[in-house]
Amino acid sequence: MVRSEPFRPAKRVAGQKQDVWTIVNEAATASPVQPIINMGQGFFGYNPPQFVIDAAKDALNKVECNQYSPTKGRPRLKKAIADSYSPFFGREINPNTEVTITTGANEGMLSAFMAFIEPGDEVIIFEPFFDQYISNIEMPGGTIRYVPLQPPSNGATQKTSAADWTLDLKALENAITPKTRMIVLNSPHNPVGKVFSKSELEAIGALCVQHNILILSDEVYDRLYYVPFTRIGTLSPEIAALTLTVGSAGKNFYATGWRVGWLIGPEHLIKYVSAAHTRICYSSVSPLQEAAAVGFEDADKENFWDDSKKEMKSKMARFCAIFDELGLPYSEPEGGYFVLANLGKVKLPENYSFPPHVAERPRDFKMSWFLIMELGVAAIPPTEFYTDTNAHLGEEWLRFAVCKNDDVLEGAKERLRGLKKYMS
Ligand SMILES: Cc1ncc(COP(=O)(O)O)c(C=O)c1O
User: Residue 296 and residue 76: Cα distance in Å, rounded?
Assistant: First the structure.
């Protein structure tokens, strides 16, 4: 039999809209203002701390660090993570049964979905969402139910807090069906910067216990919080029995390219995540696991966690000063390194020419394009992280990443002063 379409892609990769990263990069290349100041993607503009870099170099000199690691991760890293997180969980985490190492948090979450989602199962996520969740849930055949966070009602006129992006618990309850298998939480949240309060997490946890729903708690920004931070897996034994907590060495140690992540959870969940991970990529990068282990072992001695939080908070304050100066409202983050600014007051010139694939997208895509072309500053349009139905909730905002060197932040601020002439 002759196969008519040998290069026909599978549905899971075909027919996707041009993604935001491609659009932003295309604009950045086309912009007359060069070089662009990239405040868009959430990668760090500086190196991991020296003690972690040195550990990576040392690891490359060790024979066993250049070979396969055990599929569940290197014992040294699992122990370092268990030791570092046991105090937060108020109990001893077993490194052999309750921790599994993955190729970044992203592949860890894919492994969790692959482990528990069958075709037709439903997964609840909040909007705006981290975009990788979607394909990760759809690959094993899951169906997504979306529950939007409600933006602050006065977010277009005054400075608000990320806490003002609220969850409608009734809407969450209504999204639960007999097919609901999992819910994905993200705190500190990308892109909102919200740190879910203890009472919000208790309410979500109670619903999950009542309906027997697994909780995938994406806590990759867990060391960057500026208000009290609660981990849902610590709230009660009943909630802990349902919870997988996700972490990322890339986010913790400014090394997003290292692709080292992990999940912590009860043995009856972790063993299936490990099984899926083994099938997806067998094991994760050995020398960088070793370096991450040293990172955890030495972080307190180096005062790294405190310094890292202080430094990011000061970058946030330094950058947000421009919005105060311009009188542009923003949502002050409670954690992480993203800030959402509301650009509703900026008037896009009439008849401004946008390429068709930008013109058809919501206003934030046009604003992002405009900023790159006219000012040479790249920021991310958050409606990329919404379904079409709820995109209107995000279209006045833009997301800026502040994990950049201070001179880059100052350069971006100087360029953003150019917005004045487009504001009435
Ligand atoms: C909310 C969230 N979860 C997960 C990830 C992915 O983490 P990793 O780079 O460890 O795969 C990111 C990265 O941007 C993120 O923002």
Answer: 10
pLDDT by residue (tens digit) across 189-215?
999 999 999 999 999 999 999 999 999
Q: Atom 16 of ligand 1 has which residue's CA nearest to it?
A: 190
The percentage of residues in the chain with a pLDDT greater than 70, rounded to a whole number, is 98
For 129, which DSSP code?
-
Residue 25 binned pLDDT confidence (cut-offs 50, 70, 90): confident
Q: What residues flank ligand 1, with Cβ below 6 Å?
A: 42, 104-106, 130, 186, 190, 218, 220, 248, 250, 256, 261
Tell me the backbone φ, ψ of residue 7, rounded to 5 degrees: -105, 15
Choose which CATH entry (3.40.220.10, 2.60.40.3500, 3.20.20.70, 3.40.640.10) describes domain 50-298.
Answer: 3.40.640.10
Q: State the Cα–Cα distance between residues 144 and 138, nearest whole angstrom.
A: 8
- Rounded to the nearest angstrom, the distance between the alpha carbon of 356 and the centre of ligand 1 is 30
> Has this prediction a pTM greater than 0.90?
yes
